[in-house]
Amino acid sequence: MSTTDAWWGDTALKPGALRTWQIGPYRLWVRAEAREWRLWSLSSDEAMVGGIRVAEEGNDDEVPDGAALTRVGLAQRDPVLTLLPAPADRDVVVRPDLPVVVPAGVRVELYVTTPLWVVARAGRDGPTLLDEPSHRMSDTWFGPNTLEGELAYALRTSATLDLEALPYVSHRAITRVSVVNAARDAFSLVKLKVPVAGLALYDVPGSGIWTDAVTLEREQASDEAEVVVGNGPGAATARPERIADPRLAVRGPRFSLDAFGRLLGM
């Protein structure tokens, strides 16, 4: 694994000039004018596209026709754009490419990556201008039927057990998911729901962006699991820096979650 320079932070803008960013598959163009800000954004369908470009000067003809335009009425004498990473705004249902069998009494650790959201503000204390995913995941319904459950995101992944085999990409966050099978029977891990919206983000030196670690403990022959959200990423490196709070309040140190099944539409 290797890292690139951080793409988040503050950038002073020259009024009327266009600046451009690339954050993996996500592109952003920003112009601060006398009485309004204009922001164009576009995300590629290629989820794992890498590359970082930060605050480069751009021209109007570089903005593709398909880019979405956001106009914000906002006057600032010395405009500053602040970009921040954020976790997804819903839980993410992860479906490994190949199911993983977890025997009774065994603990396995999976590493999954989920797209970061890009938050643009008019300065650190200014209003939010954009809050968008670097790569848009598919919507899915997680529940026993169409009346019970919740809207989530669907993500197909390798869900690797070997951290060293995990490629680093600048627009995704790594989550260590510990699955503990405390039941008396083995089960096949076909899918699991990760409570991403309730996790903080950390910049881990030498490893990229991580979320809080998550432990899912299956105590009986069911799809329910007791969930523990760790206070930190659980990465084997020192001094991670917390760079984003969870979107949703933590439900307590331990809570129950339908984590392994009961999924429609996948």
Outline the structure in words:
The protein is mainly beta. The protein folds into two domains: 9-85, no CATH class; 87-115 and 135-264, no CATH class. The protein is built from no helices and 24 strands. The strands form six sheets. A five-stranded antiparallel beta sheet has the order 5-2-3-4-6, with no helix packed on it. A five-stranded mixed beta sheet has the order 17-8-14-13-24, with no helix packed on it. A five-stranded mixed beta sheet has the order 10-15-20-21-23, with no helix packed on it. The radius of gyration is 20 Å and the shape is elongated. The relative contact order is 0.18. The model is unreliable at 262-266 (pLDDT under 50).
List keywords for this structure.
266 residues; 5-stranded antiparallel beta sheet; 0% helix; elongated
Number of domains: 2
Shape: elongated
Number of strands: 24
Largest sheet, strands/sense/barrel: 5 strands, antiparallel
Averaged pLDDT: 86
Rg to the nearest angstrom?
Answer: 20 Å
Give the low-pLDDT segments. Answer: 262-266
* Alpha plus pi helix count: 0
Distance between the termini: 31 Å
Order of helices and strands: EEEEEEEEEEEEEEEEEEEEEEEE
Q: What share of the residues lie within helices?
A: under 10%
- Secondary structural class: mainly beta
Strand content: over 45%
Neighbour order of strands in the largest sheet: 5-2-3-4-6
